[in-house]
Predict the structure of MFS transporter.
Amino acid sequence: MNTSVRYPAGLGSLFFAEMWERFSYYGMRAILVLFLVDQVNNGGMGLEKSEAAAIYGLYTAAVYIFALPGGWVADRFLGAKKSIILGGVIIMIGHILLAVSSDVQSIFYFGLFCIAVGTGLLKPNISSIVGSLYDKNDVGGRDAGFSVFYMGINLGAILGGFVVGYLGESINWHLGFGAAAVAMFLGLVNFMYASKRSLAGKGEAPMRQPTAALIAKPPTHRGLTLMISAAFVALVGVLAVLGKIDLSNAVGWAGAMGVIIVGIAVAFFINIYLAGGLTTDEKKRMIVLAVLFFGAALFWSGFEQAGSSLSIFASDMTQRQFGDTEVPASWFQNLNPFFILTLTPFIAWFWMRQQAKGRNFSVFTKFGLALILMGVGYWILVPAAKIAVTGEKVSFMFLTMTYLIHTVAELMLSPVGLSTFSRLAPERFTNQLMGFWFVAASLGNLLAGLLVAGMDTESPTGLPDAFNQMFITSTVFGVVLLLLAKPITKWALGGKEMLADDSAKH
């Protein structure tokens, strides 16, 4: 397979479009909480930390949730390409509103809402177009392409954090928000230019052809959809009446988002599975995607410890003094995007090499290995944490090795997951199911708290047990996926990664 097939011309355009969108998103995210808690006379909002954290949580959760209706709009009305352009415009408007909001909180919050809605329109649909560049059965090429696309995400995150973070903290908060708007404009121009050239014919129109099942029983399906939606709304209402969730303030809403996200994810999946008019083969593949969704949520629950338990380990247990200079604990989190940019070409080459030799690893094998590697990363820290709780700080190499292993695991799971969801999803639901994939990261953050429930991860003494628990949990589920790889692949995909001819048509 030649390079032009591995990396089609449109991939570069999508790479840069996603890079600039992530620049704007991560750049704005880097200064959001800092702006909210900063004193009013310094240009901030002067909010309490708890309220600022709640607003941040609501915002990030909304970005994930809006990916579902964003995919639905593309599948039913606009197509992926128009949805991306509309999303980019709305994101840019949102950043502009943040830049000019001054002390008018309503304008600022509406700007955040615009960014969440725009990102929901853009994020799943640009990923689905990446998938459309490849044949359904080009597993290695698709995985390699998504690995390169993933580099754009992390490059944009690094650049956005540095540039927007510097402008916002050192010069003016609103200048930082404005820079994010400029970045989104550049990404939008790049995509619109490419849409008429290297991306011509991709994501142009929604998939409108219904299956025979949909034609046969549309009233039943429509009624079932309404029943599922009503049941979800009723559940949230009952929980609110019983006082299990508090919808009267930002903090309460943030706490309720866990229940809401889980409910939306379950209702969404059941609705498509039962009311989507799927064929038997499509239903089997939906089960595959559900298993992968859960595996991804579990993975992110361990990966997202970078901002909590791993941050404490870096701050309190790691030797960070080099001569007269002490390395900031927060800098260790930059190891992950650095390793991603360094390792991605090798991982992409590896997938292509294996396909050329006729060896295609099952997606369950890749996910299982990713979870095991996640566990190994924490296993390395267990003895180090036990030493550190005695008061002796350990070498920075422990944490560096953990981030390296976790990055390899991430590259085996995240771009592969994007690739697989774009490949196995029923074509008329492709964009919606790409949105469903992004909800896994949101659920992962929820699971992060459940995995370490009852453990004291806020102080160094509780970290050895927390790391050991994450090692055991992640490794066990990884082994389970490895054991399930062959039987599930045989049941759902006929024993191979390739799809039947009728499912491979674009």
Q: What stands out?
A: Confidence is low (pLDDT under 50) at residues 210-220, 500-506.
